[in-house]
Design brief:
The protein is built from 18 helices and 15 strands. The chain is of the alpha+beta class and about 650 residues long. It has three domains: about 250 residues, no CATH class; about 200 residues, no CATH class; about 140 residues, no CATH class. α6 runs antiparallel to α14, α15 packs across α18 and α17 runs antiparallel to α18. It is elongated.
Length: about 650
């Protein structure tokens, strides 16, 4: 499936109504005012490595290359926006405008050849809008046009060679037709840019016998026929020649549009067909109904069974019934051990704190995204929001970790707080730092510059760590509630458990249902992350997240109840791993998606994918694990506070 089809499947799921994106103000252009055309990095879905546009010997602007103002989020995500030599003035059309004439050597041609082989695209931007390109998509019934962003650097033509194999010939897309759509509100002479389309062509201008000049362009350039190879139209480059003359040209068209400025992103966010939308709606609703149905059944069974247990344990019994109860089994019998501290209590407390930090970051980020503050028009804002929210959530990490560690009668609160502030963040930072070294060695724009890395470290050490200690101070200062039952000095012997109640089995089974709540949306999230698409169906994501929380809580409580019924009181760590094991399925599904959808051509791409997905799976584990633990802790506290213990 191509990037365009994935973009269509993603964005065709929701009808976008007109609204103004917070933080983005419209710019009114006056007649003949210049509309600056900028360029973002060169991207490829095959390599996942982005390169600077001017790494290839394209035409450069007269005043030199200037980088547009970047925020920290754009830098961290590898966006590098620069100026171009294209001249666009409002309402001024151009036909076959010369950009420059270049003579390329073998080394230059080798650079183009490499980028063509790896399917690199050029990403132009005007007035904050990325350039859209028509891409024909063919299904079993018909062919329709979808929109992709970016146009290919070039392509190949297969021609018969001297041997039995075909020899590829490389051509450049050296001519682009730029169409800008404008909207004039009312009777105003000023206009708003509401659309940007680019159509690439490959034209060998110098093959036309007519004398070339800008006022009298050749016929090939006036009405270019896209890739009509049999007439020698394409601009072929010869890797064996030291002189490859190429003329770069462009057209400019202006078309009035009824599209409002607030709806101009609909081209990208609502690009699919009705059939695609129906398929996506059906998949989402079907998944939600299955998860809700299973969760309802689990909750009903649990409530009825637990109600029966409480009635049996709390009724007034005779001496004979009490003697018979001593021979019974059940969760009541572990009341003297159920709140016994787990093994490695400090690490457990640190995991709770980091899980709260990750979960809090995700919830608040999703809230701001759902109300429109993190739209695609605000490049880098999503990364900035996640980074700052993670930093400020350090106070909740310190508080949760401190409260949990104090509940276990922990005394080394300074060490526990240091572990909370540095253990899991250090693991994530070390992984990202190593991956950054890899992409830095490749010379790509994905690499985070050293000053930006220092800025991230400053936020971590100067903001997150102090807030973690502040939260821990309040957490240790406050008294913890007394457990509803007392813990015995001597641990109770745990009877042998059936194989289906072993920790490995229950943990693996427990992660299936939460994963079932997210796997449909996970497909589109992976597409956004790795195939350079836009994601803006946050309404679906909110619903899926709510279902995920409910499912994690319910499956953890149910398996915890079965574990206690088997007189196994070691529920602390298992409550985390039961719901947190869904992260394992997320990682395995990402591998499945990788083998089917991502056609990587470099070894470094494999390393980057597995590295980043391992890091994201770890964060997903922390968030879901703390949900399972919190639900189990509330459940265990409630049932043992409700039962009479002699």
């Amino acid at each position: 499936m191509s990037r365009a089809l994935l973009l269509t499947a993603l964005c065709g799921t929701v009808a976008i109504n007109a609204f103004y994106l917070p933080g983005v103000a419209p710019h009114y252009y006056s007649p003949e005012e210049e509309v600056e055309l900028k360029v973002n990095r060169l991207t490829s879905s095959k390599t996942q490595l982005a390169f600077d546009y001017y790494d290839l010997p394209f035409c450069k602007p007269e005043g030199g290359i200037k980088n547009a103002a970047e925020n920290l989020g754009e830098i961290l995500t590898g966006n590098k926006i620069e100026n171009t030599p294209y001249k666009l003035n409002l309402f001024e059309a151009e036909t076959c405008k010369i950009l420059c004439r270049q003579i390329y050597t073998k080394e230059d041609v080798a650079k183009f050849k490499s980028k063509i082989d790896e399917d690199y695209t050029v990403n132009l931007i005007a007035d904050g809008l990325p350039a859209a390109t028509h891409v024909p998509i063919q299904n079993s019934q018909s062919t329709f046009l979808a929109y992709d962003h970016g146009y290919h650097v070039g392509g190949t033509i297969r021609t018969a060679g001297a041997g039995p194999e075909e020899v590829p010939r490389y051509y450049l897309n050296n001519h682009i037709r730029i169409t800008l759509y404008f909207h004039q509100p009312g009777d105003s002479e000023q206009a708003l840019i509401v659309g940007l389309e680019v159509e690439p062509f490959s034209i060998n201008h110098e093959s036309d016998k007519k004398k070339w000049d800008n006022d009298n362009p050749p016929a090939l350039c006036q009405s270019p026929l896209k890739h009509k190879f049999e007439d020698n139209y394409p601009m072929i480059i010869n890797p064996n020649s030291e002189k490859n003359p190429v003329v770069w040209t462009y057209d400019v068209r202006w078309e009035a549009s009824e599209i409002k400025w607030a709806s101009r992103w609909d081209l990208y966010l609502n690009a699919g067909t009705a059939e695609t939308a129906e398929v996506h709606w059906f998949s989402i609703i079907n998944s939600l109904l299955i998860v809700l149905f299973l969760s309802g059944m689990v909750a009903m069974i649990l409530v009825r069974t637990l109600h029966k247990d409480l009635n049996r344990y709390n009724r007034v019994m005779t001496d004979e019934e009490k003697a018979e109860e001593l021979e019974e089994t059940g969760w009541k019998l572990v009341h003297g051990d159920v709140f016994r501290p787990p093994s490695m209590p400090m690490l457990f407390s640190v995991t709770v704190g980091s899980g709260m930090q990750t979960l809090g970051m995700g919830v608040v980020t999703l809230f701001f995204a759902a109300i429109g503050f993190l739209s695609p028009a605000n490049r880098g804002w999503l990364m900035i929001a996640m980074l700052l929210l993670w930093v400020f959530m350090g106070i909740f990490a310190g508080y949760s970790s401190a409260r949990t560690f104090k509940m276990f009668n922990g005394k080394e609160w300074q060490r526990s707080t240091l572990m909370t502030a540095f253990f899991y963040p250090s693991v994530v930072f070390a992984m990202l730092f190593l991956l950054n070294l890899i992409v830095w060695a490749e010379g790509t724009t994905n690499a985070v510059p050293f000053p930006s890395m220092l800025a991230v470290l400053a936020l971590w050490f100067l903001v997150s760590v102090p807030l973690t200690f502040l939260g821990a101070f309040f957490g240790f200062r406050r008294d913890v509630d007394k457990f509803p039952v007392q813990t015995q000095d001597i641990p109770r012997q745990i009877p042998s458990q059936p194989w289906y109640m072993s920790s490995i089995v229950t943990i693996l089974v427990g992660g299936i249902l939460p994963f079932g709540a997210v796997f449909v949306e996970l497909f589109f999230i992976l597409t956004t992350l790795w195939l350079d698409s836009f994601y803006y169906v946050y309404g679906f994501l909110v619903i899926v997240f709510i279902i995920l929380v409910i499912t994690c809580a319910e499956i953890s409580v149910v398996l915890c109840y079965f574990q206690l019924c088997g007189e196994d009181y070691r529920w602390w760590w298992r409550s985390m791993f039961t719901s947190g094991s869904s992260a394992l399925y997320v990682f395995l599904y990402s591998l499945h998606w990788y083998t089917l959808k991502l056609h990587a051509t470099r070894f470094v791409t494999h390393v980057l994918f597995f590295g980043y997905m391992s890091t994201l799976s770890l964060l997903f584990f922390l968030g879901t694990a703390v949900i399972g633990y919190s639900a189990c802790f509330w459940f265990v506290w409630k049932i043992f506070a409700s039962v009479k213990v002699d």
